[in-house]
């Protein structure tokens, strides 16, 4: 691949000519904040958080979508850049449900981290807040548009990666919302509940439905025999969560922990698969 040479924050760098400015900066350890960007999934330049100054350009440019060019001189951390990023995030926050303390993404939210990083301590743009309705009709996914920042990540991961296409930008301008077509609930769509939209949402606008309280209630009830069934992937994924090397099976530990929590029986989904094979094989 042909290479180009450019300067980023006074550091000269040579990169393939199909790189974006963001990729070039990353290759030399220069950090540019991003929000809507998701490599190979959502490269749309929507949020304008990744703005940089390019010598000779009339305005600041979104580094996540702007291609590099030979001789470019880029500054990623000038006062102008910092002010623009800060104003952008302040504007996003001005129409965002900021009940962070009770949000399931509290302390694990890209918008919250960014606001902290940009030292945002107040929102100067108070204005009309769009009224929204939480969609919690489905068994698996809760969609809360009051927290959506319209980044489009869920739209593209569902459409391009999962090839399902449940979510889309609906309405126009100020009233734009990311939702299933015709204002339907997620429950009334062919959503396969893969969860990819949740995993890739930078904020708490999409979340898994929690039934933890119902489970505790069942465990506390001496009249109820409580059975838990785990998918095969859980016994490896759980190990990773506790710092074991990837692929380590923690089946025994998991069963012991579930029993201690109060479950009467623990089954693996593959038990049902075995029964099916015995019955049908
Ligand atoms: S759960 Fe999967 S199929 Fe359903 S909307 Fe999200 S990404 Fe699309
Ligand atoms: S629901 Fe989440 S991922 Fe989808 S557009 Fe809104 S903020 Fe982005
Ligand atoms: S991260 Fe570049 S425009 Fe959103």
Keywords:
281 residues; two-stranded antiparallel ribbon; Rossmann fold; 3 domains; binds iron/sulfur cluster; 5-stranded mixed beta sheet; single chain; alpha+beta; 9 helices; Alpha-Beta Plaits; Ubiquitin-like (UB roll); 30% helix; binds FE2/S2 (inorganic) cluster
Describe it for me?
This protein is of the alpha+beta class and 281 residues long. It folds into three domains: 1-129, Ubiquitin-like (UB roll); 131-208, Alpha-Beta Plaits (2-Layer Sandwich), CATH 3.30.70.20; 212-280, Rossmann fold. 30% of the residues lie in helices and 15% in strands. It is built from nine helices and eleven strands. A five-stranded mixed β-sheet has the order 2-1-5-3-4, sandwiched between helices. The chain has a two-stranded antiparallel sheet with strand order 6-9. Strand 7 (167-170) and strand 8 form a beta hairpin. It is globular, with a radius of gyration of 23 Å. Bound molecules: iron/sulfur cluster (2 copies) and FE2/S2 (inorganic) cluster (FES). One iron/sulfur cluster is lined by residues 148-154, 178, 201-203, 205-206.
In short:
With 281 residues, the protein is α+β, with helices and mostly antiparallel strands.
Q: How many domains would you count in the coordinates?
A: 3
Inertia-based shape: globular
User: How many distinct helices?
Assistant: 9
- Tell me the CATH architecture of the largest domain: Roll
**CATH class type of the largest domain:** Alpha Beta
Main beta sheet: strand number and arrangement? 5 strands, mixed
Q: What share of residues is helical? A: 25-40%
Annotated CATH topology of the largest domain: Ubiquitin-like (UB roll)
The ligands bound in this entry are: iron/sulfur cluster, FE2/S2 (inorganic) cluster
Cross-sheet strand order for the largest sheet: 2-1-5-3-4
Low-confidence segments, given as residue ranges, are none
What is the mean predicted local confidence, pLDDT?
95
Radius of gyration equals 23 Å
Order of helices and strands: EEHEEEHHEHEEHEHEHHEH
Taking the alpha carbons of the first and last residues, their distance comes to 54 Å
Number of strands: 11
In what range is the share of β-strand residues?
15-25%
